[in-house]
Write a structure and sequence with these properties.
Helix content is 27%, strand content 23%. By secondary structure, it is α/β, with parallel strands linked by helices.
C-alpha cells in the first residue's frame, strides 16, 4: 500500500525546488549542488558569454535575457563584455546584491511559470540555459500489464509506487514523442508536455529575435528506457528525494520543443568561434607570458564547453521570431 503522503512526481518536484524553503530559494542556490556552463570550472562563463555577445552582434540583437539565471553569473559576464547591451535576468530569488547596477532583474514564480512583467521583447536573444531540465513534469512507468501509469513519490523518503493509468494530453504526448508500445515493465518516461508548454510560453514573450533552449537532452530513437530522473547534492549524484535537500533534474526531450534548428553545443559554439582544439603557441609564452596564460585558460574553457561526453553534448533548440 502506498503511503498517504505519496503524490505525483510533478507536484512533489515543484514543491521541493520552488516551494517555500525549496532548494532554489535557499541561500546556496543551485551552485551549491551542481555546476552549470556558467558556474563550472573557472573561465567557462566568460567564454560562453563571449560567444553569445558575438552572436548578438552578428544578428543585430540588443537585449540579452537569461531565463533561470541562478545568481546572475552569465549576465554579469555579458554585461562586462558589452555594457551598452540591455541585460535581463529572471530567477526565483530576489536580485543578487553583487549584480551590476544596469542589469535588470525579474523575480519568477518558479518552474514553468514566468513573471507577468516579462514580455514585449524586441531584438532579443533569450537563453534558457539548463532551465527546462528543472521544469517539473510527470513521470510514468510501464506496469506488468504493459500499461503506462503515473509514478507517485513520498516526499519524505523518495519511495515510489504506481498511480493511475496515464491519460489525456500526457498520454498523447507519449504516443507521439516517447511511444511506450515496445517498452518492457519498469521502463519509464518523463512526460515532456510541461516542458513544451513552458517553452511555448517563453516564445510568446518574444516579439523579435532568437530563443535558444540549452540542455541535457535526447531525441526520439534514443530515449533512455529507464528515464533520467536524478538528484544532485553537493556535486554528487544521489537518489532523488523531493524534500528540498537535493537538486532534482531530468533530461529534456529536445525534439518535442518547437524549434527551427536542433544542434549540439559543440557545433553551435564552433560556429561562434569557440574551438576547444586550439591551443596558444609557445612563441606567445616567450613573448608575453601573461597573454599566454590568459589564452591558455580560454582554450581550456573552450575545450570543456565543447567536450564529447560532457558539455559539448548539450543540445540547443533554436527558434527565430520575426516581426
Amino acid at each position: 500500500m502506498l503511503p498517504v503522503t505519496s503524490m505525483p512526481w510533478q507536484q512533489a518536484w515543484q514543491a521541493a525546488l520552488y516551494g517555500p524553503g525549496g532548494l532554489y530559494r535557499q541561500p546556496a542556490g543551485p551552485a551549491g549542488h551542481f555546476a552549470t556552463s556558467t558556474q563550472g570550472a573557472p573561465g567557462l562563463g566568460p567564454v560562453l558569454a563571449g560567444a553569445l555577445v558575438r552572436w548578438m552582434r552578428e544578428e543585430g540583437l540588443t537585449t540579452f535575457v537569461d531565463v533561470g539565471c541562478g545568481r546572475g553569473e552569465l549576465l554579469a559576464h555579458v554585461h562586462a563584455l558589452d555594457p551598452a547591451m540591455r541585460c535581463i535576468g529572471l530567477d526565483v530569488v530576489p536580485r543578487p546584491e553583487d549584480l551590476p547596477g544596469p542589469v535588470e532583474w525579474l523575480e519568477a514564480p518558479g518552474g514553468p511559470d514566468l513573471p507577468a512583467s516579462l514580455g514585449g521583447l524586441e531584438d532579443a536573444l533569450v537563453v534558457a540555459n539548463e532551465w527546462l531540465d528543472v521544469v517539473p513534469c510527470p513521470v510514468a512507468e510501464v506496469d506488468v500489464a504493459g500499461v503506462l501509469r503515473e509514478v507517485l513519490v513520498d516526499p519524505s523518503d523518495g519511495s515510489e509506487g504506481l498511480g493511475q493509468e496515464l491519460q489525456g494530453p500526457d498520454l498523447h504526448w507519449c504516443q507521439r514523442f516517447w511511444p511506450p508500445a515496445d517498452a518492457s515493465p519498469g521502463d519509464r518516461v518523463e512526460v515532456g508536455r510541461a516542458r513544451d508548454e513552458a517553452w511555448e510560453a517563453l516564445l510568446g514573450r518574444l516579439v523579435s529575435g532568437i530563443a535558444v533552449a540549452v540542455d541535457y537532452g535526447h531525441v526520439r530513437g534514443a530515449r533512455p528506457a529507464a528515464g533520467t530522473l536524478t538528484g544532485f547534492r553537493a556535486g554528487h549524484h544521489v537518489v532523488p528525494v523531493p524534500d528540498g535537500s537535493c537538486d532534482i533534474t531530468a533530461h529534456v526531450a529536445m525534439d518535442s520543443l518547437p524549434h527551427d534548428e536542433l544542434v549540439d553545443q559543440r557545433s553551435a559554439l564552433r560556429r561562434l568561434g569557440v574551438d576547444g582544439s586550439r591551443r596558444p603557441g609557445y612563441e606567445l609564452a616567450r613573448a608575453d607570458p601573461t597573454a599566454y596564460l590568459r589564452a591558455l585558460g580560454e582554450a581550456s574553457a573552450a575545450a570543456a564547453l565543447t567536450a564529447r561526453g560532457g558539455l559539448g553534448d548539450f543540445l540547443w533548440a533554436v527558434t527565430r521570431v520575426r516581426r
